[in-house]
Write a structure and sequence with these properties.
There is one protein chain. The protein is an alpha+beta fold. The chain has one domain. It contains four helices and seven strands. Strands 3, 4, 5, 6 and 7 form a five-stranded mixed sheet that branches. The protein has a two-stranded antiparallel ribbon with strand order 1-2. Helix 2 runs antiparallel to helix 4.
């Protein structure tokens, strides 16, 4: 008596043989294919050094130590007012370029930033802005107005800047300048 072979068995057996042959071929030749890198395609991502930048005016302590001097610098481009404000603040709090003195205490980091429809920017800085601050009325004023001037000078939509520390409103940074309200631009601190 002959055993009956299920219908379609030959088709399944053929497909299985093709799959096994394909796997064997992949195991034998696959490593060579993976090791070959095509040289025609350029990298998809753009290095940070080649990212889009804009010219912005940042503010550093002047030679007398009593005012701020505006300096044109390239900063990363940000899409929209809030993102561009973030890029400007990041550039302003970064270490000063050679030959310049930053008004921002060392180690200060931007925690977050948000923009209101009224044109106010809330800038939340790390506690380093207070703990590393040298103190004194002039130093505190220059720290605050370096940030205020950088944002209001470069972004016409910004009317004032509210500085927060670790997510909280503060009375002052170092005991002298009232920070309980948003600060408007005051060019009397800019010497050029």
């Amino acid at each position: 008596m002959k055993k009956k072979v299920p219908r379609g068995f030959g088709l399944y057996a053929g497909l299985a043989a093709v799959l096994v042959a394909g796997l064997v071929g992949l195991l034998v030749f696959g490593p060579r294919w993976l090791a070959t890198v095509p040289d025609a395609a350029p990298p998809i991502s753009t290095p940070a050094a080649e990212a889009r930048k804009i010219s912005a005016r940042l503010f550093y302590v002047d030679e007398q130590g009593t005012g701020l001097q505006g300096v044109e610098q390239e900063v990363l481009f940000g899409d929209g007012t809030a993102e561009q404000a973030r890029r400007i603040v990041e550039a302003q709090i970064a270490p000063a370029p050679e030959g310049r003195v930053s008004a921002i205490p060392t180690g200060t980091k931007l925690r977050t930033l948000f923009f209101t429809k009224a044109g106010e920017i809330y800038v939340d800085l790390s506690a380093d802005v207070q703990t590393n601050h040298p103190g004194g009325t002039t130093n505190e004023t220059l720290t605050v107005y370096a940030l205020v001037s950088a944002l209001t000078s470069n972004l016409p939509a910004v009317t004032s800047v509210q500085i927060l520390v670790d997510g909280k409103e503060v009375d002052t940074l170092a005991g002298h300048l009232d920070l309980r309200r948003p600060i408007e631009q005051d060019l009397k601190w800019v010497t050029n």
